[in-house]
Amino acid sequence: MDILNIIFALLSIALGCFGWLAPKYTMGALNLEGHTDTMGMSEISASAGCLFVGMGIGALIIGTPEAYAMLGFCWCGAAVGRLTSCIRDGASPKKWIYFAVEAGVGLPALFLNI
């Protein structure tokens, strides 16, 4: 269980680094490449980047089941948002892949730690 928790935290950090350190790449991956203003880049760095980096680092530092469960809740929250978008705005293969990643990290992190 401990090794899986560490993997989920490191995955959060790694994925967050894309949004933080490569916001243009992340914007392209999210089909937002036409938005080149600095506020859009800032939002990607914050919400798709450092938020996930901070979650992963926090879980590693605290190191308790509750910390890793919170990591799972955050990823599940992202999955719920993605699923809502699929229902409300229309599904696409890319949305389903992102949903699978979010749920694939979030659900096991929750089930292992609650």
Q: What's the topology here?
A:
Elements: H1 2-21, H2 23-29, H3 38-62, H4 65-89, H5 93-113
Helix pairs in contact: 1-2, 1-3, 1-5, 2-3, 3-4, 4-5
Question: Would you give an account of this structure?
Answer:
This protein has 114 residues and is mostly helical. The protein has one domain (2-113). Helices cover 86% and strands 0% of the residues. It has helices at residues 2-21, 23-29, 38-62, 65-89, 93-113. It is globular and about 40 Å long. It starts with a helix and ends with a helix. The model has no long low-confidence stretch (mean pLDDT 93).
Low-confidence stretches: none
Q: Which series of helices and strands comes N to C?
A: HHHHH
Shape label: globular
Output the structural class.
mainly alpha
Tell me the radius of gyration: 14 Å
State the separation between the terminal residues, measured CA to CA.
Answer: 12 Å
Chain-averaged pLDDT: 93
Number of strands: 0
Tell me the helix content: over 70%
Largest sheet: none
How many DSSP H or I helices? 5
Domains, number: 1
Report the sheet-strand fraction. Answer: under 5%
Give a concise summary.
With about 110 residues, the protein is mainly alpha-helical. It is about 85% helix and about 0% strand.
